[in-house]
Design goal:
The chain has 452 residues and is α/β, with parallel strands linked by helices. It has three domains: 145 residues, 3-Layer(bba) Sandwich (FAD/NAD(P)-binding domain), CATH 3.50.50.60; 104 residues, FAD/NAD(P)-binding domain (3-Layer(bba) Sandwich); 112 residues, Enolase-like, domain 1, CATH 3.30.390. A hairpin with a 2-residue loop joins strand 11 and strand 12. The longest helix is centred in the first third of the chain and has 18 residues.
């Protein structure tokens, strides 16, 4: 006999934790099933520990910028306190007891096991089956995509997990992938003295963002000593002794003590039983509507939906699912036209909405503006480490911004103003009439607006 509950949440990562906790606090009988760590990738192997690493690397870089501006300074990198801080945050052995207890105290039941969907509203975990009267929430997240490169399987390559767990850094490393994860970790390692080589198949790194963003990030990392091979496909991987050798399609090769595979992520729904819900188990994502419903009494949130694989999107969709399940009369619907994202390199590269290419491909009448941060008063004052730009994408027919990029020393923070503008569809004319505080980095937004 199945145990009767109100909601079963399959996957208790960031979005699943938020959903389970809030529904339980609302008085529902909630069972959350998670085979990995409750809390998901973000607190243990993603957002939080990686930003600790980045913060440490940025401190080294900023100290080195003292020369010529405020005296002299000698920097001796030490990875030990960084590794120690990460372990303290992840409770030393990557233990999720704190997260589990937090949910239990809210009234949820947490099952640490693998979930299998057995029917439209039933889920099995271990030797127990649960019948959910209100429905199921699928929030199983993503796992690293490992490309089918000859010789790669069976070698001790790293993913983001091994990179985060490292208590010492290698002398050299090859990074496959020039996306956000690869670029962030590459810069950190380089700033701590590791010889870093990045191999990226696209013509430029950060290929999903504006071309200017890729150029800026690559040039910044090159100044940190990183070597790049762009437009290069890894054809074969060899491992002998303590050395990885990656042979590229043109016959050249690169070597390193470690190999970090950062070539993207895929949804983690293998053998979940999606076919029992009428969903395609081989699909690259679970399609959802504006209420994040994937079917009758089925909701999907977070990375599995393929809508921006970001923690903030998982939280956003969790809120929509919770309020829909609770049948709140003013429950919101999803809108992704102003999806923000930040690559936490130095300089930070924040973006929101469409890129120029996406806007043109959508058939919009596009006008763009771009201004350089060093040309702004605050950029001139900042001097060392002042690289960056503001780029605006305007739909001239509607007179609004549909996308923007904020790159610079505080690019992710300056992005907030642009996110509001894109989200609320604030008329460009109104934005041009605003007062922008002087001398700030965000004042460069005003300069770009005048170009429009």
């Amino acid at each position: 006999m199945a145990d009767n509950v109100d909601v079963v949440v399959i996957g208790v990562g960031v979005g699943g934790e938020e959903t389970s906790g809030r529904l339980a606090q609302a008085g529902l009988r909630v069972v959350g099933i998670e085979s990995r760590l409750v809390g998901g990738e973000c607190p243990y192997y993603g957002c939080i520990p990686s930003k600790m690493m980045i913060r440490a690397g940025n401190l080294l870089a900023e100290t080195r910028r003292v020369h010529g501006m405020a005296g002299t300074a000698t920097v001796e990198p030490d990875w030990a306190p960084v590794a120690r801080r990460i372990r303290e945050e992840a409770t030393d052995t990557w233990n999720d007891k704190v997260a589990v207890d937090r949910l239990v105290n809210k009234g949820a039941t947490i099952i640490k096991d693998r979930a299998t969907i057995t029917g439209p509203t039933t889920v099995r975990a271990g030797d127990r089956e649960y019948e959910a009267s209100r429905g199921l929430v699928i929030a199983t997240g993503t796992i690293p995509t490992i490309p089918p490169i000859e010789g790669l399987a069976g070698t001790p390559y790293w993913t983001n997990r091994e990179a985060i767990e490292a208590d010492t850094l290698p002398a050299s490393i090859v990074v496959l992938g020039g996306g956000a994860i690869g670029m962030e970790l590459a810069q950190v390692f380089a700033r701590f003295g590791t010889q870093v080589t990045v191999v990226e198949g696209a013509a430029e790194v950060l290929s999903m963002e504006e071309p200017e963003s890729g150029v800026l990030a690559r040039e910044a990392l090159e100044r940190d000593g990183v070597t790049f091979f762009t437009g290069a496909r890894a054809q074969r991987v060899g491992y002998s002794g303590d050395t990885f050798t990656v042979t590229l399609a043109d016959g050249s090769s690169v070597s390193g003590e470690k190999l970090l595979v950062a070539t993207g992520r895929r949804i983690a729904t293998d053998e979940l039983g999606l076919e029992k819900l009428g969903l395609d188990p081989k699909a690259r994502r679970i399609e959802v509507d504006e209420h994040v419903r994937a079917g009758d009494k089925v909701w999907a949130i977070g990375d599995v939906t393929g809508v921006g694989v970001f923690t903030h999107n998982a939280m956003y969709q969790a809120d929509i699912a919770v309020r829909d399940i609770l049948q709140e009369p003013d429950a919101p619907t999803a809108s992704y036209h102003a999806m923000p994202r930040v690559t936490f390199t130095d300089p930070e590269i924040g973006a929101v909405g469409m890129t120029e290419k996406q806007a043109r491909e959508a058939g919009l009448d596009v006008r763009t503006a771009l201004t350089q941060i060093p040309a702004s008063t605050r950029g001139w004052i900042h001097k060392a480490g002042n690289e960056g730009f503001i780029k605006l994408i305007a739909d001239t027919e509607r007179g609004i911004l549909v996308g923007a990029t904020s790159a610079g020393p505080t690019g992710g923070e300056v992005l907030s103003a642009l996110s509001v503008a894109v989200h609320a569809r604030v008329p460009v004319h109104s934005l041009q009439q605003m007062i922008y505080a002087y001398p700030t980095f965000h004042r460069a937004i005003g300069a770009a607006l005048q170009q429009l």
